[in-house]
Amino acid sequence: MRQCLTSPNGGYYTTKREGRDQFGQKGDFVTSPEISQIFGELLGVWLVAEWMLQGRKKDGVEIIEVGPGRGTLIDDLLRTVSNFKGLASSVENIYLVEASPSLRAVQKQLLCGESALEEVQIGYRSISKYAGMPITWCEDIRFVPNEPDKTPFIFAHEFFDALPIHALQSVPPTPTAGQTLSTPTGQISLNRPNPEAQKPQWRELLVTPTAPSSIITTTASSPATTNSKESKADFQLSLAKASNPSSLLLPTQSQRYKDLLSTLGSVIEISPESQSYAAEFARRIGGSIESKPLTSSAAPPAPRKPEPSGAALIIDYGPATTIPTSTLRGIRAHQLVSPFSNPGEVDLSADVDFMALVEAALSASKNIEVHGPVEQGTFLEQMGIEERAEMLIRSLEKENAKGAIAKAEDGAKSGEETKANVETRKKAIREAVERLTSRLPGRGMGTLYKALAIVPERGGKRPVGFGGGLGG
Can you give the pTM of this predicted structure? Predict the structure, then answer.
């Protein structure tokens, strides 16, 4: 997944192709911020509410978004934040974690216009059009400074679904199980066979080239593969013949995985990188005794945080409590396709294991709480999506009334055209709200998408959008 999506040579997000845009109706998929400006505005309101709950800090506030796409969400969010002068003046920096140079250029143009883009030690920097707030682009969250006296507000929208997964299947023991180990350089014999090998084992499902006459048929074929009209792909999933480091280590890290081992044929998906990001968010908010960096064990630990502050909001799709299974999919031109065809030209994603993110965050810091996941529809309704939609509609009606007076001398036809245009825009606002919040299968995103919040430890007081208000 990493190679196909972010490789500098032909990656889906990192390679600019003439006439191709991944986002929007003309691209491969549409995200919530592209559907309505209200989505990003409400995330801005969520940030404001958390800032207020944490004492309205006057300085040291940071806004971080991982995987900003075209910048639509952060643009709507910053426009909202800029209306709250106390918060806007407290923002010291905005960090956008973006691996794609082409998307970074799109984001810079949207957020900063003609402001100069300068190269700095950790990436690139410019000044936004919103209250002069500075923006720094980094290729990885490891490059974003982790200073204990700062208050980071972190946003991850449809970011975790694009992080690599390991797919593992439970298999019965074999006579030779535990005598060899698969490694990148081949199989090696073990001097002392593992006694656990006489029990059910996890085996990794590996991506392998498809034989010329082969048709994809695997025990754990993904929905995209089975539903695709394509009968042949470049690659397929194949069950490893022996244990490898991933199958031996990853399923031991949670009781949730251990409980499924005895159910032969069970398939689970584990994303170590997703868990690392969730742990990193938690450490930046709550601090940690160890404060390990995201990946590099050789780097020095971050200083201990004097008091927890900040928050993280994760919105993505996946089951609320169960482990994802066989969810790897390809998306192209708004259709499900085989994830194993046309590498670099198809978007790849897999359901997010929200409970794995919860476990990772809680294990990383003792000074944080995790709330959710809650359905996106519930979150947005509690944040006031209906009320905001009505405000926009009333604004359109006032605009229409003023325009009607100004154009009265143009005749009835002009007035009718203006009224029809307003009605079309009002309908679009209502349809966008319906799509973002609907629980009906196939009608919207209200149930499929979930929201998860990481906040400082505060005795269980719920954040707004998760059952709480400004008083907790």
Answer: 0.86
